[in-house]
């Protein structure tokens, strides 16, 4: 549990932290505040992400996600809820955002086999499902 | 931490997983995408759940909840935030939903006494509160 | 993992629980239902929190946050998503709310150094960031 320094890209920071600490699998929770946020929505009919942009500052209410291996490197998959000045909530798959404040919990998961993201189809990189 | 196969009912899957693995208490986080979702809001004045339906596909931004015993079987209580194509957020007590993608963290909690859901009143099944 | 008794202030309850159990660092997840809620949004331009009030009952969809030390006592920092009767989501920094139902997971984090909130500037009490 720690605070990520201001102005980092949130996803890049967690990826780098995982790489440097040799973390291949983990669960993540994060709260704080973000700015200049892009949130994705996966469109099943086109196989592409629709990206919505949120300029300025938003409370980061709940970042929930995980770290696993993608192309041999730790990769962070994070979904976030953000809140605006009126308390309205927005939510999506985090594409990118700058940290204003970020308080992170990262729970490393040990053991084998490691979870690996593979390109299943149309921009979806997924783990093999359990049987 | 694992991926739940597509097309399962999310709650039924977690209930079955807990039963087969003899998990009586657990905390759950889940992200991914869901379809054909029903979210409940408990109306204190009537003692009934109002159910809102969300057809089609939504990002599953944050599923947060737990597993405990209800009528001698593991029972999943999950609240979810979902996001639409414009990044708007909806939220409620999960009644049912089909999995498109679901990446689940389940933290088993051992020890006694086990938490048991009992019918307190008017559709509320709750654990005994701490003193 | 346990249920917080009805009618407590959610933040005061967790603070008291941490103090009585000598918990100085922890991560928190909580779901349930709240009433008479005040959610904050930190306005970077003024350095003050804007507070939005939500009277009546809301589902507590995801409370995500942590406990650390502030002025030598355990202090709970919690962000919440709440849901209304139509399934709409609102979100913010929890200022206060009364518990209707609250199912809490608290994960104590041991070790040194302890995280301490210090007054950085303009109503922001933050941990030192990692380097």
Write a concise synopsis of the structure shown.
3 copies of one chain form a homotrimer. Chain A is mainly β.
Write the topology of this structure.
Three copies of one chain form a homotrimer.
Chain A (H helix, E strand, L loop, with lengths): L1 E3 L5 H11 L5 E18 L4 E23 L2 E11 L5 E20 L7 E6 L2 E3 L5
Parallel strand pairs in A: 3-6
Antiparallel strand pairs in A: 1-5, 2-3, 2-5, 3-4, 4-5, 6-7
Global morphology of chain A? globular
**Average pLDDT number of chain A:** 97
Distance between the termini of chain A: 33 Å
- Count every helix of chain A, treating DSSP H or I runs of 4 or more residues as helices: 1
Please give the radius of gyration of chain A in angstroms. Answer: 15 Å
**Assembly classification:** homotrimer
User: How would you characterize the largest beta sheet of chain A?
Assistant: 7 strands, mixed
Return the structural class of chain A: mainly beta
User: Would you list the SSEs of chain A in sequence order as H and E?
Assistant: EHEEEEEE
Description:
3 copies of one chain form a homotrimer. With 131 residues, chain A is mainly beta. In chain A, 8% of the residues lie in helices and 64% in strands. Chain A is built from 1 helix and 7 strands. In chain A, strands 1, 2, 3, 4, 5, 6 and 7 form a 7-stranded mixed β-sheet that branches. In chain A, strand 3 (48-70) and strand 4 form a beta hairpin. The longest helix of chain A is centred in the first third of the chain and has 11 residues, at 10-20. The radius of gyration of chain A is 15 Å and the shape is globular. The termini of chain A are far apart. Chains in contact: A-B, A-C, B-C. Chains B and C meet through strand 2, strand 3, strand 4 and strand 5 of B and strand 1, strand 2, strand 3, strand 4 and strand 5 of C.
């Amino acid at each position: 549990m720690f605070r990520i320094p201001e102005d980092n890209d949130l996803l890049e920071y967690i990826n780098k932290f995982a790489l440097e600490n040799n973390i291949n699998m983990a669960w993540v929770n994060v709260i704080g505040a973000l700015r200049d946020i892009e949130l994705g929505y996966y469109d099943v009919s086109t196989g592409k992400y629709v990206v919505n942009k949120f300029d300025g500052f938003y409370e980061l209410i709940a970042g929930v996600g995980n770290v696993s291996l993608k192309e041999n490197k730790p990769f962070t998959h994070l979904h976030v809820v953000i809140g605006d000045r009126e308390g309205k909530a927005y939510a999506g798959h985090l594409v990118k955002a700058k940290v204003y404040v970020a308080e992170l919990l990262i729970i490393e998961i040990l053991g084998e086999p490691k979870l690996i993201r593979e390109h299943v189809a149309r921009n979806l990189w997924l783990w093999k499902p359990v049987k």
